[in-house]
Design a protein that fits this description.
Elements (H helix, E strand, L loop, with lengths): L3 E2 L10 H7 L15 H20 L8 E4 L2 H16 L6 E5 L4 H12 L3 E5 L9 H7 L4 E5 L13 H10 L3 E5 L18 E5 L10 E5 L25 H36 L5 E3 L10 E6 L4 H10 L2 E2 L15 H5 L10 E5 L9 H17 L2 H7 L1
Parallel strand pairs: 1-11, 3-4, 3-5, 5-6, 6-7
Antiparallel strand pairs: 2-8, 7-8, 9-10, 10-12
Helix pairs in contact: 1-7, 2-7, 3-4, 7-10, 8-10
Bound molecules: 4'-deoxy-4'-aminopyridoxal-5'-phosphate.
């Protein structure tokens, strides 16, 4: 059976060009970047080249402004916990993030609360946009760090980051942005957006897993969350994963080159998917109708469960997700869908389709027809639906 993979928010296949570029660092060019001999220097050169390519993707200025980590979760922890613990004395003991952040921001913020910080969540509207008026009331002077994601991976909504940055910086707070879902999909400019700390993930760019990056604006001080041998300016110790880092750099370079063309190609497929899916009875878009990631379509169907949708779609060869892969292990109702104002009984029938290089417009009719059949089948078994219709 042909596979139609539409779950790029959970995993992006490694770009073949990236693999070819990075593979030598797994075997022949195996040196430790901290070693002074030739293999070590070769590895160091690869790491520094990657740092430069990642910096260029987000207009981060000097490559040294990029701290390499083991992934986005680690970068988010370094940003939120690192900024809060290091600067609380100087700025204050309040931390703020939006209500729809990924768990790798929300849980560090919860940890801060346990450790004596005042914390507050900035609410979002029905489309997932941060309420700027409320944010200005919440991110007040004394807020050490404010974290708002560039775009949400579950509902695709892109935040007005520049306006948020103005509010946050006017309060004297350090501004962290998790760009895991957005980097390489839409242009990001940390200078123009007034961002102090920016998280990027390798795997979401089509690079290998096991690498991520945090942009750190010059002058912003962080406390390490990974003490050890002192790599990465002492902020993230541990021998560098040169293969993943080199691959991430190459993926960033390719994204910078190809993003515009690829994103407009995917946006066309996204729009066709959304309009087809919304033709199914009692189906609603989740997230913003226009301010959304170009590769991202998300809807919810009333009276059915996401797990059933996922399994039946998979049986027909189509891979989708229902909310966030990361929190599916906890089986909790999506905090993102609750935050946009949906009721508990409305958050379960959600379907997220995220596109990538393998996605083609020709697949749209089959995907939409399969979704329609799936929904009909599940509703036929749904007591909620049957009660509604009787
Ligand atoms: N932030 C966002 C917005 C995400 O979607 C994810 C999951 N892909 C992460 C952070 C964490 O990424 P990882 O699990 O690769 O560390």
């Amino acid at each position: 059976m042909k596979r139609i993979y539409m779950d790029h928010q959970s995993a992006v296949p490694l770009d073949g060009r990236v693999l070819e570029y990075a593979l030598p660092f797994l075997k022949d060019r195996f040196g430790n970047p901290s070693s002074q001999h030739t293999p070590g220097l070769e590895a160091r050169e690869a790491v520094e080249e990657a740092r430069g390519k990642i910096a260029a993707l987000v207009n981060a200025g000097a490559p040294k402004n990029i701290i390499l980590t083991g992934g986005a979760t680690e970068a988010n922890n370094l940003a939120v916990r690192g900024a809060a613990y290091r600067n609380a004395d100087k700025i204050g003991k309040k931390a703020v993030c939006s209500a729809i952040e990924h768990m790798s921001v929300l849980n560090p913020v919860r940890e801060l609360k346990k450790n004596g910080f005042e914390t507050e969540l900035a609410p979002v509207d029905g489309h997932g946009l941060v309420d700027l008026g409320r944010l200005a009331e919440i991110a007040v002077p004394g807020t050490v760090v404010t974290s708002v994601m560039y775009a949400n991976s579950e509902i695709g909504t892109i935040q007005p980051v520049r306006e948020i940055g103005k509010i946050v910086r006017a309060a004297g707070s350090i501004f962290h942005v998790d760009a895991t879902a957005a980097a390489g999909r839409i242009p990001i400019d940390v200078e123009a957006d007034g961002i102090d700390l920016l998280t990027i993930s390798s795997s979401d760019l089509g690079g290998p897993r096991g690498a991520g990056a945090l942009y750190v604006r010059p002058g912003v001080k962080l406390q390490t969350v990974m003490p050890g041998g002192g790599q990465e300016r002492g902020l993230r110790s541990g021998t560098e994963n040169v293969f993943a880092i080199a691959g991430m750099g190459e993926a960033a370079r390719l994204a910078a080159l190809e993003m515009n063309e690829e994103s407009s190609r995917l946006a066309e497929i996204r729009d066709a998917l959304i309009s087809g899916l919304l033709g199914i009875e009692e189906t609603y878009l989740t997230g913003h109708p226009e301010k959304r990631l170009p590769h991202h379509a998300s809807v919810r169907f009333t009276a059915i469960e996401g797990e059933g949708i996922l399994l039946l779609m998979d049986r027909a060869g189509i891979q989708v997700s229902t909310g966030s892969a990361c929190s599916s292990q906890t089986l909790q109702a999506s905090h993102v869908l609750l935050a946009i104002g949906l009721k508990h009984e409305e958050v379960h029938g959600s379907m997220v389709l995220t596109l990538g290089r393998s996605s083609v417009i020709e697949d749209v009719p089959y995907v939409v027809a399969t979704a329609a059949e799936t929904v009909t089948r599940l509703r036929a078994m749904s007591p909620v639906w049957n009660r509604k219709k009787s």
